[in-house]
Design brief:
Largest sheet: 5 strands, parallel
Shape: elongated
CATH superfamily of the largest domain: Tetrapyrrole methylase, C-terminal domain
Number of strands: 19
Bound molecules: S-adenosyl-L-homocysteine
CATH topology of the largest domain: Methyltransferase, Cobalt-precorrin-4 Transmethylase, Domain 2
């Protein structure tokens, strides 16, 4: 960054413009927006400059600028429509220690004027170091569009209200107040005039001080395994009421469609390939929206099952944001249902374990001896990368090579797929990239018949 953008205070400062013609007029138009005293020197002043001089907007002298004229000036513009003359003016500036801009001469200039979007007091300066004026113009046009004409007025009125707003505690609640002002209540009342905007601010403040309406809330909703009909009634209701829906990658479009049309839908997919959301960023997003809005945090299956729910709750707690939890159908129960079997069975297994193949430290360790026993059943989430590890551990702890294992891919989705095999074949079982639940010790009924036959022959 060769040119560093700063905003210079011009109040009661002196700015000198050398030149009074066409080229100076362009610079003067900008300078007249400032609060500086603008002195113009040059022969044959343009009509516009003479007009400004008569109106007292600039001080004009019909002569060439001299060293003494630069006394106390903070900036100097060399805008004489005459490159040679501009350079000698710049030399005067150097000698006087005044920063100068030489029109159309980047090398001889100490500073450059950016493209400006003026919504005073909101000012956006765009610079490309002279490299790409076309780009600067395009960016300027887009920013102009982004900042409606009323932005400046809103900011001015808001500025006058900052002290009053201090009764709202600093942090998410204060931000929620200002967000509502700048993006909702302010723009809506602007058409009715400044008085209406001020009235809106007072109402809004009362609302936010009373802690009521504008306070946000987060509902953690278990979206189930994918079939919209497996949503709970509470989940549907929360989705319908949400202003913002923040969802995992595994939540299918058919469920997202149940949100209101005006709701803001944000995906925070964590993908092994391509861009992926970090948990800290998800937490921050949740806090940002949860402070002001009704948010549904939509997690696949049951939010409290391998869903990093606690971390998100802690972030909300730390920011005093209220939340509640709507449980969902977890992938393991949906997968068992798809297989047409139950997870527990009298005389076979009186317990069932939900495991993950991997944890923070890599492969996750479990009570393998118990899991290897005949009749033991486990549902393994995120099992793909650890299939070989699980197989090795079970065998090491005495599991039979013919122990049934099953995989249910895309449980409760149109492309659901179920396969049963033996522990021997486990690593080949988990092909592809579809989400899958792996069961050890569980077989489909059809497969069980064959497996049992094989086992009894063994
Ligand atoms: N909270 C989720 C689990 C999130 S961890 C739940 O309760 O279901 C992500 C893992 O869940 C996936 O790797 C996969 O093992 C499993 N999973 C999620 N949806 C699934 C589906 N429709 N079919 C099979 N497995 C699924």
């Amino acid at each position: 960054m060769r040119h560093f953008p700063i905003f210079v205070d011009t109040r009661d400062q002196k700015i000198v413009v050398s030149g009074a013609g066409e080229c100076a007029v362009a610079k003067l138009r900008l300078l007249l927006k400032t609060e500086a005293r603008v002195h113009v020197f040059g022969r044959d002043a343009h009509d516009v400059v003479q007009g400004w001089a008569q109106d007292g907007k600039v001080v004009y002298e019909d002569r060439v600028v001299t060293a003494g004229d630069l006394d106390g000036a903070i900036l100097l513009y060399a805008a004489n429509d005459e490159p040679e003359q501009d350079l000698s003016v710049a030399t005067l500036g150097k000698a006087a220690g005044v920063k100068s801009l030489v029109v159309d001469n980047l090398e001889a200039s100490d500073f450059i004027t950016p493209a400006i979007v003026d919504r005073d007091p909101v000012t956006v300066a765009i610079g490309t170091e002279g490299a790409a004026p076309v780009l600067a113009r395009k960016i300027k046009a887009e920013v102009e569009e982004m900042l409606p004409a009323g932005t400046g007025i809103l900011a001015r009125i808001g500025q006058g209200f900052r002290d009053a707003a201090e009764i709202i505690p600093q942090g998410p609640r204060r931000r929620a107040f200002w967000t509502s002002y700048y993006f909702d209540k302010g723009p809506k009342s602007l058409a009715k005039g400044k008085g209406a905007v001020e009235a809106a601010l007072h109402y809004l403040l009362a609302d936010h001080v009373n802690d009521g309406a504008a306070q946000g809330h987060v509902t953690f909703v278990g979206a189930g395994p994918g079939d919209p009909e497996l949503l709970t009634l509470k989940a549907r209701k929360a989705l319908h009421e949400a202003a913002v829906v923040i969802h995992d990658g595994l939540v299918p479009p058919a469920i997202l469609e149940l949100a209101r049309r005006e709701a803001q839908i944000i995906s925070v997919a964590k993908s092994a390939f391509g861009p992926s959301w970090r948990q800290e960023d998800i937490n921050a997003l949740l806090v940002e929206h949860g402070a002001a809005d009704r948010v549904v945090r939509l997690k696949s299956g049951d939010g409290g099952t391998f869903g990093r729910l606690d971390e998100e709750i802690e972030a909300l707690d730390a920011n005093d944001i209220a939340f509640d939890i709507v449980p969902g159908v977890t992938a393991a129960t949906a997968a068992a249902a798809a297989m047409g079997v139950s997870l527990t069975r009298r005389g076979r297994n009186s317990s069932i374990q939900f495991l993950t193949g991997r944890d923070l430290s890599g492969f996750a360790e479990h009570d393998w001896r118990r899991l290897a026993e005949p009749g033991a059943v486990a549902a393994i989430y995120m099992a793909r990368a650890s299939a070989r590890f699980v197989q090795g551990r079970l065998m090491m702890h005495g599991a039979s090579a013919s122990m049934p294992v099953s995989a249910v891919f895309n449980a409760a989705r149109p492309d659901q797929r179920i396969i049963t095999a033996t522990l021997n074949e486990l690593p080949e079982l988990l092909d592809g990239t579809d989400p899958a639940i792996l069961f050890t010790g569980l077989a489909t009924r059809a497969a069980k018949a064959t497996l049992l036959k094989e086992v009894s022959h063994a």
